[in-house]
TrEMBL record:
Record key words, sorted: Signal
Name of the protein in question: Putative Periplasmic solute-binding protein
Organism annotation: Thiomonas delicata
Pfam families: SBP_bac_11 (PF13531)
Leader sequence residues: 1-33
InterPro entries named among the record's database cross-references: ModA/WtpA
GO BP terms in the entry: molybdate ion transport
Length: 344
């Protein structure tokens, strides 16, 4: 029999961790703490596909036979995993910096390689997390599901690609193909009146920032913060504000930043410019503030075939495809620039 003096069992749904769906519940005397460890707020689910991924409504799934489609925003949602690993003939691990460009890239690649149509699987997690998955033999667990996919090709920052080759994880050559610059992503109405990187250090300005533990972009961001406001600004954003809860560090990647902005959990966040452009293109209430060249940091993206790949030839074809005119046209739509070798 229920004891009226005992609090009624209550279940609260935690805010979306960029599509992987963290379900938190508390029952009994102790209520669920509002602090879930990442600075978010417990709130009822808001099943709005206009806010929660997958934003492409299935267009980023290259599988031909999708069977029963069962996607519930915030709860059952795997936006960083694409395709059918059971029938794949090319497995791509790509840093999530351009998850939004992958669908058109895959479609263009399939036109050139029709035998691979419907047989491409790709993941768009942060590069550090992808490397951890590779270290576990390609096995990953999300919620109650575990599966294994060994990549044929790995794409990330050029320095990380070269490091992987040096460690024997990847096979030379390292192929650079595009570059990207940073920007400050903001809600469209810019309630905190952000105009520059130095504004991010102001008291009361809530931030969503990539986590240095697994996102390489954080190093570029830290460098830009130092350029704009010295070491003090970098420490304010990535240390002091993290401690007092004004900076939320992402748990997946910067796909979370627009989510936090649209839910009012943050006022700004530094991302790659391409991501802000994508959010604006799909009509989300997101804007961006350009960072001057003197304070900005440019990333070079590279790719290489994975050592021991099951489909090395397909992996090589994908790597070479990324710097073709067809691929570069797609990248340029989102603000990427073709990589130009200074030595050439």
């Amino acid at each position: 029999m229920h004891n009226k003096s005992t609090p009624t069992c209550r279940t609260r749904i935690g805010s979306l961790l960029a599509g992987l769906g963290l379900l938190a519940a508390a029952c009994g005397v102790t209520a669920l703490a509002a602090d879930t460890g990442w600075g978010g707020k417990a709130r009822p689910p808001q099943y709005k596909e206009s806010i929660f991924p997958p934003w492409q409504h299935g267009a980023n799934n290259p599988a031909l036979d999708k069977g029963l489609e069962f996607t519930v925003p915030e709860i059952n949602d795997l936006p960083d995993f694409h395709g059918d690993p059971m029938t794949s003939k090319l497995n791509i691990f790509v840093a999530g910096n351009y998850y939004f460009a992958m669908a058109p890239l895959v479609a263009a690649f399939e036109k050139e390689h029709p035998a691979l149509k419907g047989h491409i699987y790709y993941e768009t997690l942060p590069p550090g997390i992808l490397l951890k998955q590779m270290a576990h033999g390609g096995t990953i667990t999300v919620g109650n599901m575990t599966w294994t996919v060994k990549p044929d090709v790995y794409a990330a920052g050029l320095k990380k690609i070269k490091a992987g080759i040096a460690k024997g994880e990847l096979v030379a050559p390292a192929i650079p193909y595009v570059t990207n610059d940073l920007t400050i992503m903001i809600p469209k109405d810019n309630p905190a009146h952000i105009a520059s990187l130095t504004d991010l250090g102001k008291p009361g300005v809530k931030l969503s920032m990539p986590n240095p533990a697994w996102e390489g972009v954080s190093r570029q961001i830290e460098a830009s913060l130092v350029k704009a406001g010295g070491k003090k600004l970098e420490q304010t954003v990535y240390e002091a504000k993290v401690k007092d809860g004004q900076t939320i560090l992402t748990h997946i990647h910067h796909r979370q930043t627009p989510l936090f902005l649209m839910q009012g959990l943050a006022d700004a966040g530094v991302t790659w410019k391409s991501e802000a452009i994508f959010q604006e293109q799909v009509g989300h209430p997101i804007g961006h503030v350009d960072i001057p060249a003197a304070d900005n940091t440019t990333a070079i993206y590279g790719v290489a075939v994975v050592k021991g790949a099951a489909h090395p030839e397909a992996g090589k074809e994908w790597a070479e495809f990324l710097r073709t005119p067809a691929a570069l046209t797609i990248f340029e739509k989102y603000g990427f620039k073709p990589y130009m070798d200074k030595a050439s």
